[in-house]
Amino acid sequence: MGFLLTTLVFVVIGIVASLCARICCNKGPSANLLHLTLVITATVCCWMMWAIVYLAQMNPLIVPILSESE
Amino acid sequence: MAERECLPTMDLLRSEPMQLARLIIPVESAHRVISYLGELGLFQFKDLNMEKSPFQRTYATQIKRCREMARKLRFFRDQMYKAGLLSSTWPTHGSEISLDELEVKLGELEVELIEMNANSEKLQRAYNELLEYRLVLKKAGEVFYPAQTRATTQQREHEHHRVERSIDSPLLLEQVLLSYFSLLGCYSKIYDAASYPPMVLKEITADLSKQVKLGYVSGLVQRDKSMAFERILFRATRGNVYLKQESVEEPVVDPVSGDKVEKNVFIVFHAGERAKSKVLKICDAFGANRYHFTDDTGKQYQMITEVTGKLSELKTTIDVGKHHWSSVVQAIGLQFEQWNTMVKKEKSIYHTLDMLSFDVTKKCLVAEGWCPVHATSQIQKALLRATIDSNSQVGAIFEVLHSKESPPTYFCTNKIMNAFQEIVNAYGVAKYQEANPGVYTAVTFPFLFAVMFGDWGHGICLFLASSFLILKEKKYSTQKLGDIMEMAFGGRYVIIMMSIFSIYTGLIYNEFFSVPFEFFGRSAYACRDSSCRDATTIGLIKVRNTYPFGVDPVWHGTRSELPFLNSLKMKMSILLGVAQMNLGIIMSYFNAKFFQNDLDIWYQFVPQMIFLNSLFGYLSLLIIVKWCTGSQADLYHVMIYMFLSPMDDLADNQLFVGQKYLQILLLFLALVAVPWMLIPKPFLLKKQHEERHQGGAYEPLHTLDENLEQQLNNRSRGGGHEEFQFSEVLVHQLIHTIEFVLGSVSNTASYLRLWALSLAHSELSSVFFEKVLLLAWGYNNSVILAIGVVVFIFATVGVLLVMETLSAFLHALRLHWVEFQNKFYQGDGYIFLPFSFSLINDDEE
Question: Which family does it belong to (chain A) (predicted)?
Fold first, then answer.
């Protein structure tokens, strides 16, 4: 799907998740900020992991060499 | 300051603002005030009577009373366990009762129970003794006459050798009787003694035994001691006794010890007083109970009936007693929990009251303590309520004090964030108002765990286990669990977060019990040509777009899987590590900004950022550029020669234009950053100190409001405040700089454990799958398959789900405690422990 497109998907998921958190547990501005921080941190972590794995496979220097038994 | 007001504060980022407050309470409402504050649970009392020993304090007698009551309650609990009442069935609420009434009641019940126990013990012992007596009567009766006959025979023979011959006719009678008796003796061997006319036999033997003064002792001895008993009797009396033993079939309850032991009934025939006393002493030594036995048959039957009657009487008495006891214990059981809580509460209230000091007028108690600022109105309400309830004339006063002492740290966590906060607190409690790493730990900790655990099959197992614990939350939170279950239950929210992230990383690593799936599209690799000849030598090539989500499924099982995955995971570890360390340094910036420490911002934060990012940030950049361009550059080479010979031409290792000059610049920045961290700060601190204490000869007058203790406090910490040791500050800064500079290398390398554990997990998982499950499958035999499945499940649960979870948990914890927190966290505060009844209940258990 391409790097940028999937990144955009992650951003959208992050926004949706923060909106859900705001709707479900709206407990005042300080608590909301905490929930927002948690959601954003989680989204960033997940995106980073995906991005690293995707970038590593974009221009590979090693190719799969099948083992003999197959 | 203005900037801070624009952004709203974030929950949990910093400790709640705390204040030192003083309460002045009239004595008559003191108990109630403390009780209501205990229910509120938001006030931490300071001990104002530190110098006094526990015995000198005002409420020592009350505490002694409470301790006595607690002891009685412990005694009742033992009785309840004996009665078999389980603690989980005890109700927690009962009728209202005052402390004095409770004390009286507990005393009465204790006396009653002790009496009942003593009585039942006595009765039981008497019962057992009677049982033994009955046994002796029955058994001894069977063997008495033959035994007596034999004994008398033996004695006659002995005496015959000793008695001098006399010409009296009794001698003739004796001789005749002797011969007749020996015949009798022979006959008794051949015939059953019962077949002889018993009366004749008995009369003769009775007469004879009277003449030879044969006495007998009967009783019960333990079977395992019986041989020793016999031997010692024989030796002590030089063989002049006749012992007959008969074993009892079933074990008898020993009256002394109360246990069931195997016993033998014995009769010892002896002659003379000395022998008798020896036999008696030996019986006592062996703990053999002696019971009197009459040789009159009529009396024997009478005795047996009497004893049986007494036994049944005793049994009924004992049963009635037991029934009464158990009803008393059950009645106690209904009220036990309530009494227990009440006694604990009262004890804690008196302990707290002991911490307060008396006012000069002796009519008021003064309390000092910490409380959160937002709890002020609640505390004042509680004070008002207590004043009204105790009908006091004077209200309690709540006054805020100002102090230079560092307040305790208080985070208002809910049950989910509490577990993560506990993890952070285990390393060190945050200093007052310092940034709390718990906010980020709540996400990064499960995330780093998942990077090391990455398997969505295992993740699902963990998820099911933790959701089970969460669903049964209400039930388990009231029960008492074992130590390990307690820890697992306490961490249920952590585990569920860990499992959710593990499912995500499992999908990225594409491992379901080490099996990859093609969920997200087709694999990017295919054979070079249609015959696939080169697949096992040169390999496949990339024909389509990159696999959109996660690791391409074709890699599993290939020969080049490990080189590829190792490279990927190592680089990933470095990237994640550098990101987290940067986050740590940025947190230190926010701390410096909050405490308005400009010095820290310019001379610590900035050089630290420059140093870390010019070296390891640059490495991360190189990694990403190499991936994006697919260059063959050797990054080890690049980094090492950046230091060794920065002026050299890069040749094949060039990743982008101007790399050489960028490297020289970054190296220069890093070299500049080190003295920037080290040197200016101590000098500037010295200058600041001198400015602050310019007019240091004059100190502000203490107002009347501040009490003596504050002055004492200031004086005791005067060392740190008044003096400024320049050498100390310089050394401190030197240590800090070296720690950071060397730490940046070691910490970055430390993040490679993410790679190591992830590799271990996937290899173990792969081995269990291939070498157990697939091997068992290959035999095409259902028995072997069943065994294989069972072994696979045990291995997966034991090694991967338990051991690997703990291992990854530990390493993720270490990464947070050391690599993340040493960039910004002081962690030298103390936690807010309010006086609260709910905490006390947890404490005591």
Answer: Belongs to the V-ATPase e1/e2 subunit family.
